[in-house]
Structure to design on (520 residues):
C-alpha cells in the first residue's frame, strides 16, 4: 500500500528516472455519470504500471484521455513533457508515434491484410523511420517478434483471437514506441493464450525497453507483469503499491479485487 | 392522451440531427481541401462504389426502360402518338427517372454499406486505432467516401440512362419494328442540353447526399452491434428522403431557368 516510506522510494526513483506520463487531477463526466474524479498517476521510464479497477471504473476513459481520443473536463496530462490538451493535431500525431496502443478488441482493420495493417501507421511517420521505401523488413521484424511472420498475407478474419491480439501488438511496435498502453490485453482470451500474451508483453519490454501502462481487471496478468499497481475506485486512485503490498492490504475495497 | 411531448422530442431530435449533419458536411469541405490527400484510398473507393453498384444499376435501368415503354405504349397507340415514344421515354429517363432511380438504388446499396462499414469500425475501435496511429480517420474514411459517391453517381446515372433507353428501344423494335438507329436518332433529337445539364448536376448532389448520410450515420454510430444495424438502416431511410428533397429543389430551380 502507499505508505510514507514507499512513497519516498517512489519519489527517489522519480528523481533518477524520467517521468514518461504524468496525470494530475483528471476529471471526466458523461452527463451525470462522473467517471474520473481527480485521478493522478505517474509512469516512469522503463516501468510496468498496472491500473486495476472493476468494469465501468473509468480505466478505458483515462487511457483514451491520455492519447487525446477523449478530452478531459479538467486536469493535466503530460506525456514525455508535452501537455496533451494543448497540442495541435500535427504535434499530437507526432507525439502519438511514440505511444503504442493495444486496443481491447485488437482493432485490426478488417479490409486490410496483416501486412497492410502493420504498414498503415508508417504512412504518416516515415521520417521517424528514416524515410524508408521498403517497409517489408520492418513488418517482418515486428511480426517475428510476436511469432507470426507466416501470417503476413492473411486477412484478420482468418486469425484466431490470440493471433489477432499478437498482430495488434506487432502493429503497436512498428513505430518503435517509447510507451505502450495496453487496454485489457488479456480480456476475451483463454488462460493459455492470455499467459502467452503476458509473456510476450514482458519480452517486448525487455527487447525494446518500453514503458508500459496496463489497464486490466485480470489479477493474474497484474501479478505477473506489474512493478507497481494503482487501484482505480470511484474515479480516483484508491490504493497504490506493488502487487504484494496490495495483496496484504486489509482494506475491504482492495481485498475485493484479490478474492478468488 | 398527451402526445405533445413525444412529438416535440422527436422534432427536436430531428432538427438536432440536421444541425449535426450540416456541421459534418462543413467539416468535410474543410478537410477535403487540406493536405495530405488520400488519392489512393479515393481511387479504391471510386472502384468499390462504381464497380459494385454497376450491375444493380444496369439491371434496374434496363427493366425501367422496358417497363416504361410497355406501360406507355397502349395509351400512346390509342391517341395515335406512338411515334412520340422515343421522345417521351428519352426525356423522362434522362431528366427524372434515370437519376432518381439510380440514386435510390445506390442509396440502398452504397449508403447502407458505408453506414454498416463505418459503424462496425467505430464499434470495434478501428477508427480510434486509426486516429492513434496518426492518420486522420475523417479524411481517410469520410472524405474519400463522400468524394467517391459524388464522382461515381453521375457516371452510374449515365450508364443507367443508356441501358434504360436500350431497353425501351428493344421493346419498340420488337413491338413496333422501329430500328435502333431510328429510335436513338429520335431520342437525341428530342433531348437538349437543358435536359442533360441539370440532370447531371443533380446527380452530383445525389451522390454527395448518399455519401454524406452514410458516413454520418456510420461515423457516429452508437456502441454495439445494434448500433451498426441502426446506422445502416437509418442511412438508407434518411438518404432516400433527402434525395426527394434535393430532387424537388433541383426541379424547382431548373424550372426557373426554363422560364427565362
Amino acid at each position: 500500500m502507499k505508505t510514507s516510506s514507499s512513497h519516498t522510494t517512489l519519489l527517489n526513483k522519480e528523481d533518477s528516472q524520467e517521468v514518461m506520463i504524468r496525470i494530475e487531477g483528471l476529471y471526466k463526466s458523461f452527463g451525470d455519470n462522473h467517471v474520473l474524479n481527480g485521478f493522478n498517476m505517474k509512469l516512469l521510464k522503463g516501468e510496468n504500471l498496472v491500473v486495476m479497477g472493476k468494469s465501468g471504473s473509468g480505466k478505458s476513459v483515462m487511457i483514451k484521455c491520455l492519447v487525446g481520443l477523449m478530452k478531459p473536463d479538467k486536469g493535466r496530462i503530460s506525456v514525455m513533457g508535452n501537455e496533451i490538451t494543448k497540442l495541435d493535431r500535427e504535434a499530437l500525431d507526432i507525439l502519438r508515434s511514440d505511444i503504442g496502443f493495444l486496443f481491447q478488441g485488437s482493432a485490426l482493420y478488417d479490409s486490410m491484410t496483416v501486412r497492410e495493417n502493420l504498414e498503415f501507421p508508417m504512412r504518416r511517420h516515415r521520417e521517424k523511420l528514416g524515410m524508408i521505401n521498403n517497409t517489408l523488413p520492418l513488418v517482418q521484424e515486428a511480426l517475428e517478434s510476436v511469432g507470426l511472420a507466416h501470417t503476413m498475407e492473411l486477412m484478420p478474419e482468418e486469425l484466431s483471437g490470440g493471433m489477432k491480439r499478437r498482430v495488434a501488438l506487432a502493429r503497436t511496435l512498428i513505430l518503435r514506441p517509447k510507451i505502450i498502453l495496453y487496454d485489457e490485453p488479456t480480456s476475451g482470451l483463454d488462460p493459455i493464450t492470455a499467459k502467452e500474451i503476458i509473456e510476450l508483453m514482458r519480452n517486448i519490454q525487455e527487447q525494446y525497453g518500453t514503458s508500459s501502462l496496463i489497464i486490466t481487471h485480470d489479477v493474474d496478468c497484474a501479478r505477473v507483469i506489474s512493478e507497481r499497481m494503482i487501484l482505480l475506485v470511484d474515479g480516483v486512485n484508491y490504493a497504490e503499491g506493488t502487487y504484494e503490498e496490495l495483496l496484504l492490504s486489509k482494506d475491504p475495497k482492495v481485498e475485493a479485487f484479490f478474492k478468488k | 392522451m398527451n402526445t405533445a411531448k413525444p412529438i416535440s422530442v422527436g422534432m427536436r431530435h430531428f432538427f438536432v440531427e440536421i444541425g449535426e449533419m450540416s456541421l459534418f458536411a462543413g467539416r468535410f469541405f474543410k478537410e477535403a481541401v487540406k493536405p495530405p490527400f488520400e488519392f489512393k484510398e479515393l481511387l479504391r473507393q471510386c472502384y468499390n462504389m462504381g464497380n459494385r453498384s454497376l450491375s444493380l444499376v444496369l439491371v434496374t435501368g434496363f427493366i425501367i426502360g422496358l417497363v416504361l415503354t410497355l406501360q406507355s405504349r397502349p395509351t400512346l397507340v390509342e391517341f395515335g402518338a406512338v411515334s412520340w415514344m422515343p421522345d417521351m421515354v428519352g426525356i423522362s429517363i434522362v431528366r427524372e427517372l434515370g437519376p432518381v432511380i439510380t440514386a435510390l438504388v445506390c442509396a440502398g446499396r452504397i449508403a447502407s454499406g458505408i453506414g454498416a462499414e463505418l459503424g462496425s469500425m467505430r464499434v470495434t475501435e478501428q477508427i480510434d486505432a486509426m486516429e492513434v496511429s496518426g492518420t486522420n480517420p475523417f479524411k481517410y474514411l469520410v472524405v474519400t467516401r463522400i468524394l467517391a459517391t459524388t464522382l461515381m453517381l453521375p457516371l452510374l446515372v449515365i450508364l443507367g440512362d443508356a441501358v434504360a433507353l436500350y431497353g425501351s428501344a428493344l421493346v419498340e423494335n420488337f413491338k413496333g419494328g422501329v430500328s435502333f438507329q431510328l429510335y436513338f436518332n429520335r431520342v437525341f433529337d428530342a433531348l437538349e442540353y437543358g435536359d442533360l445539364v441539370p440532370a447531371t448536376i443533380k446527380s452530383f448532389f445525389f451522390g454527395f447526399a448518399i455519401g454524406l448520410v452514410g458516413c454520418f450515420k456510420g461515423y457516429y454510430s452508437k456502441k454495439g452491434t445494434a448500433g451498426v444495424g441502426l446506422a445502416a438502416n437509418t442511412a438508407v431511410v434518411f438518404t432516400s428522403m433527402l434525395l426527394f428533397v434535393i430532387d424537388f429543389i433541383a426541379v424547382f430551380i431548373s424550372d426557373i431557368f426554363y422560364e427565362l
User: Anything to note?
Assistant: The mean pLDDT of chain A is 86. Strands of chain A lie at 19-30, 33-44, 48-52, 74-79, 82-83, 99-102, 179-183, 211-216, 228-233, 236-241. The first helix of chain A runs from residue 4 to 16.
